[in-house]
Write a sequence for this structure.
């Protein structure tokens, strides 16, 4: 198995070999030269992806169970589905991740579903690159509907949500008032709100809070994403009990409606193009960051670092001096 | 007032002019050339700062009220205190921020306390730079104990916590089980755990959960930060009712104990040196990012971008081509 090269693994994955698909995703996740070769193989015009759905929200909101239900809906509609579960890798979360995956077991024998966890810790900037590449890989090997599930509500999650065409934000009754949702930055990224665990008290209040927030600024979501967007989409607020499946079909319907609208207005294509250009910029920054590491081996870097540590030069001034030494300010392509 | 230059503003701030201090912090927050000039003025060997305390945790955990209590303790101990409240700027959170600040009103007439909100949204990488600079500015103008309060539990907050000598993680009873705390990455950054709102049910269980997590790996916190760290500090788990002040003095005692240990073992100096070098690297990456923007104006960038959008070249390969065109791979200082 060890001798199969990327091309062979890719061909096998396209033929339905899930082990090959898993190995390719591991390569993408680890980054480096192998990741680059796999990404280049999987790169294709965006037509290889039908829909990318982001599912995000606070820990414990039931995102995995909801994702499970959405996968079932997608299968019923005839789509092959890839799931990327972005998990923080921590010595203690192993059990929880296992738990999430166990819940997904109902799809384990379905060749039309591919579920994969990706770690977040230790990747930082790298993750934002790996997720779009993993999405494209899944599309290229035939899982053209991709669900990206993220744990947490921080900037990393907001960045990952940026890789989705449609983002579902999951909250729970009593999870917090509307101000908390707003504080966490959820309002800006939500295309669909789901109040899960709707069998608990407080669901009506939470739905009302979210609707009030949307009343205050119905353009919030789409304006944040694209000030030039056509007629706004008001994120629907839906109540679900994901464990019993209650309300999940309605969520799927709204996802389809949102996707249809994106495609019809040309916004889907615009978003995808913008994301690709963002990705190019991030990749370029990553490339430059590697150059910084090389710089760090030079004498000039050590001298500047000593000046900073001695309190003679602040870090920003030190960085400017190093950039000037590297000749960055003086040259560039196309000039 | 408009004509006062940075030096004059700085001198006035050192003399206790809080308006001048506020204007300098605004400059630091906005970034750019002014920020750089202020940062250079405020940069000094780390002796100008006594202690940097981070207070972080989930939204609604009562961080502002606890911070308020810790400020009172610090004042009782004779320290001048600066508070940086890192708030997500959202059209809807204005009220909440106001509410937080109103709670802090008891210090409003105390010239030994300076409280300042900083926005997170729209800064991304920039924030991580602005916070250390703002901390140094506060130290340089005489607020040598600085409390950095962050809303949320995402990567941005973890990064900001990296600017603190000692980090307090605030949770509430029933906020979530130990796995959730771990998922949110709190275990790795906590030097002191506070279970706030201890008048609510479930406080004992939450304390037990946290202690169990720490039992599982008592080295977790210090090892994550520095594998070569001397004898580990086990983060104490303290219960508080910040609104009544119950338990806050004990938190302050533990903060002092942790700080004393850091100073005694030389770890304080090591951490601060490491942070300065991290800052230098981030500043260099920021510098390079600006170069990327310049590159983006060139013909080569447009050609590469077109290839990416046409599906001929993946973003990573495009970035490598641009970096090669910029001559980055061939040159560097000190070689």
């Amino acid at each position: 198995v060890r001798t199969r090269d990327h091309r062979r693994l890719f061909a096998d994955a396209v033929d339905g070999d899930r082990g090959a698909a898993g190995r390719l995703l591991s390569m993408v996740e680890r980054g480096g030269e192998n990741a680059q070769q796999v990404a280049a193989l999987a790169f294709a015009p965006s037509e290889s992806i039908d829909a990318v759905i982001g599912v995000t929200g606070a820990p414990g909101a039931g995102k995995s169970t909801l994702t499970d239900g959405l996968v079932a809906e997608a299968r019923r509609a005839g789509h092959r589905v890839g799931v990327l579960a972005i998990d923080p890798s921590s010595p203690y979360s192993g059990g929880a991740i296992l738990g999430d995956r166990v819940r997904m077991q109902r799809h384990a024998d379905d060749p039309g579903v591919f579920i994969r966890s990706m770690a977040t810790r230790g990747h930082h900037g790298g993750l934002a690159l790996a997720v779009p590449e993993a999405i494209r890989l899944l599309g290229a090997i035939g899982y053209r509907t991709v669900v990206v599930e993220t744990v947490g509500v921080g900037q990393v999650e907001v960045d990952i949500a940026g890789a989705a065409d449609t983002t579902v934000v999951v909250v729970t009754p009593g999870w917090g008032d509307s101000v908390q949702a707003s504080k966490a930055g959820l309002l800006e990224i939500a295309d669909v709100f789901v109040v899960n665990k709707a069998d608990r008290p407080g669901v009506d209040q939470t739905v009302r809070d979210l609707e009030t927030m949307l009343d205050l600024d119905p353009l919030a979501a789409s304006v944040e994403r694209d000030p030039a967007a056509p007629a706004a989409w008001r994120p629907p607020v839906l109540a679900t009990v994901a464990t019993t499946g209650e309300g999940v079909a309605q969520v799927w319907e709204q996802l389809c409606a949102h996707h249809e609208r994106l495609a019809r207005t040309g916004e889907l294509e615009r978003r995808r193009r913008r994301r690709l250009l963002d990705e190019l910029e991030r990749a370029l920054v990553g490339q430059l960051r590697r150059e910084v590491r090389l710089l760090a081996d030079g004498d000039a870097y050590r001298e500047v670092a000593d000046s900073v540590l001695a309190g003679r030069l602040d870090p920003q001034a030190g960085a400017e001096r190093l950039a000037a030494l590297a000749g960055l300010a003086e040259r560039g392509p196309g000039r």
